[in-house]
Design goal:
Blueprint lengths: L5 E4 L9 H16 L3 E4 L13 H12 L22 H13 L3 E4 L3 H13 L22 H9 L5 E4 L6 E6 L3 E6 L7 E3 L7 H11 L4 E5 L6 H10 L6 E5 L2 E2 L9 H7 L8 E2 L6 E2 L9 H9 L14 H7 L10 E2 L2 H14 L2 H14 L6 H11 L9 H5 L11 H7 L4 H13 L8 H15 L7 H9 L7 H8 L1 H14 L4
Parallel strand pairs: 1-2, 8-9, 10-13
Antiparallel strand pairs: 3-4, 4-7, 5-6, 11-12
Helix pairs in contact: 1-10, 6-7, 9-11, 12-13, 13-19, 16-20, 17-19, 18-20
Bound molecules: glutamic acid.
């Protein structure tokens, strides 16, 4: 492929970006990078009625967090700007006029009210009103009205929209890079509005004008836009422009496969549907986000990459650079991709265990700070190393090792009942004396284990007869990582202190 590939991600700031949107951005990015092309970010904000103030920042912050970078954008600039459609308003009218001149579009004067009446009349007969090649012949537009009438209405400033004039008996054909050949008869298409009465283009007009002017070569977008593709192909043809190649990505489905993943599924099923948390400015409703739920951006990218694409091998862990190398639209499937929350957590776990103890410790220090606990980074580093394998998220580490930071003063009564026998305090006191013999600098897991084993051998006892009680004094229950390593990290002084405290305070009644 030549190196003039230009793709764009074109979100509308009507709300937060759903993970499906981020996946579209990612696939565009991967495709551009793979072909040494350019990836453009364009904000499609022509629909003023659906504009949400904080949405644009949300979109930009989400893409930043994921590490998806654009070559041209509102922030970065570029030779094809502006990159906000609202700042390109002046560009669109001329193309709508050109379409009218060439007889491919027409003025429609029907008021909203008139159309509403028609819609309800149709509805009462169990039908749906569609402004199409049949209906247009009966309505108030520049096809049915005389030139003079149209002229005078325009002069009087009567409100109108510009609609595409879909040809009567034709077929529109296109080849989608994912779905193959598609053909639609024009009888099935409606005369969509291209230019609105408020002087703004609709999505369809602005989208194709911008894709043309920005020299977009490949339109990679969600399946929900597939029904619009034939209309776009016709518009390119009417304007004598070369249409870009199209690739419509598969839908993201609910975990059970029953329908499209919706913004409510996440909170209902316990996984985020949005990259960052989002508070709806109108309703005040809050939705959780991947970042705020403790996902690493690399894991998030990996999860998204596999929602619709797969490399055809066993390899599942992919860095962004590896994705760029291996990604291809040929390996993107047609059918909807089911979101698997367990797999998402698995991905995060994989990234977590591959990070250094130091990095995990630094992140975990933030949760310690929030709890008002100050700890030494070296100590935390060793403590997290013991439990890294057991968690999917850094925030889960606390539940695993809180005892490292807070000595127990209460003990799990079930464990006490089962494991704290009459002879236990005496036995533990003897073990404590063995530990006391170890030099503080030699208080290593190995030496502690050896001391314990020697002690038990001498008494002719098994591990089970002391280890649970020992753990109870150190941890407060029967959970936790290897006791000897835990003891090493806590250090001799703390271990002896906890053992003594336990011996004096744990009682079966
Ligand atoms: N503005 C549209 C959206 O919000 C863009 C669709 C397209 O990529 O053509 O998804």
């Amino acid at each position: 492929m030549n190196n003039n590939v230009r793709v764009r991600f074109a979100p509308s700031p009507t709300g937060p970006l759903h993970i499906g949107g981020v996946r579209t951005a990612l696939y565009n990015y991967l495709f551009a990078r793979k072909h040494n092309g350019s990836c453009i970010l364009r904000i499609e904000d022509t629909d003023q009625t659906r504009y949400v103030d904080s949405a644009e920042d949300y979109i930009l912050n989400s893409l930043d967090w994921c590490g998806i970078e654009f070559d041209e954008s509102l922030r970065k600039g570029g030779d094809f700007g502006p990159y906000h459609q609202s700042e390109r308003k002046h560009l669109y009218r001329r193309y709508a006029d050109k379409l009218v001149e060439k007889g491919h579009a027409y003025y429609a004067f029907d008021t909203q009210q008139e159309l509403d009446v028609l819609r309800s009349e149709y509805e009462s007969q169990g039908k749906t009103f569609i402004y199409n090649q049949t209906a247009r012949k009966e309505l108030r537009n520049s096809i049915t009205l005389s030139n003079d009438e149209v002229q005078s209405m325009l002069e009087k400033g009567e409100p109108y929209v510009i609609r595409i004039k879909i040809p009567e008996d034709d077929t529109v054909e296109l080849t989608d890079l994912i779905r193959g050949h598609i053909s639609v008869h024009t009888k099935e298409m409606d005369d969509k509005v291209l230019y609105k009465a408020d002087g703004m283009p609709t999505y369809h007009l602005a989208n194709i004008v911008d894709d043309h002017l920005m020299e977009i070569t490949h339109v990679i977008r969600g399946e929900e836009w597939l029904p619009s593709a034939p209309l776009h192909v016709l518009l390119y043809k009417f304007l004598d422009w070369k249409a870009p190649a199209f690739a419509h990505l598969p839908l993201l489905l609910k975990p059970d496969g029953a329908g499209k993943l919706s913004k409510r599924d996440g909170d209902r099923l316990g996984f985020p549907v949005f990259p960052l948390k989002w508070k709806d400015p109108k309703t005040g409703e809050e939705y959780m986000g991947y970042r705020d739920s403790g996902y690493f951006p690399e894991a998030f990218i990996n999860i998204l990459a596999f929602l619709g694409w797969n490399p055809g091998t066993e390899k599942e862990l992919y860095t962004l650079d590896e994705l760029i190398k291996d990604f291809s639209l040929e390996r993107v499937g047609k059918s909807g991709s089911r979101f698997d929350p367990d797999k998402a957590r698995w991905f995060n776990h994989q990234y977590l265990i591959r990070k250094s103890d130091r990095e995990i410790a630094e992140r975990f220090m933030t949760s310690l700070d929030e709890k008002g606990i100050s700890a030494n980074i070296h100590f935390v580093e060793k403590a997290v190393s013991l439990v890294k394998e057991r968690v999917n998220f850094v925030r889960e580490i606390w539940d695993e090792i809180s005892f490292m930071f807070i000595a127990p003063t209460e003990y799990d009564p079930k464990v006490v009942k089962k494991k704290w026998k009459e002879h236990t305090p005496g036995l533990l006191s003897e073990l404590l004396e063995q530990f006391r013999q170890i030099d503080p600098s030699d208080f290593t897991a190995e030496n502690i284990e050896e001391a314990t084993k020697d002690f038990l051998a001498e008494k002719d006892l098994g591990m089970g007869q002391i280890m649970n009680a020992f753990r109870l004094t150190i941890v407060g229950g029967n959970k936790g990582p290897s006791m000897f390593h835990t003891a090493e990290i806590l250090g001799k002084e703390e271990v002896l202190k906890r053992m003594e405290y336990g011996i004096n305070h744990i009682s079966r009644d």
